[in-house]
Amino acid sequence: xxxxxxxxNETFKYxxxxxxxxxxxxxxxAVVTGFNRVSNTAFMNEEDAKAIxxxxxxxxxxxxxxxxxxxxxxxxxxxxxxxxxxxGLLYTATRPDPASALLHFRVFTTSRVLHSFVxxxxxxxxxxxxxxxxxMLSLVSMIYTVFSHGAL
Length: 152
Known about the structure:
Layout: H1 10-39, H2 46-51, H3 65-93, H4 98-120, H5 127-151
């Protein structure tokens, strides 16, 4: 039997690819937030505001509605992507059917990409809630699989 955490394991390869996508997406939100901070001279810390040429004249931290929205997006990503990485590893260790695993990973990844899109562009609800729910259902299903393999 091939090692579980090896590129010879189709499920693990799927997991690596989808994990890379959601982590890259999370990093991109951080980069966009930083770009918005610099372009709007809106910094969280006084020392940052004072250090940047053209920064806030009084050196006081400030923000914008877009930056606040990006921060919430980033926090939401961290609250969902980190559990996906950890649960995905546990799930992969159960050696699920590769097609089933691919479905779980695709649902989660697609839901997170769509979630960011609808969050950033303030698409009316229930769009964001549906995206979140699809990703959460994928996580819950993977957790159930781990538990059903006698993890308790």
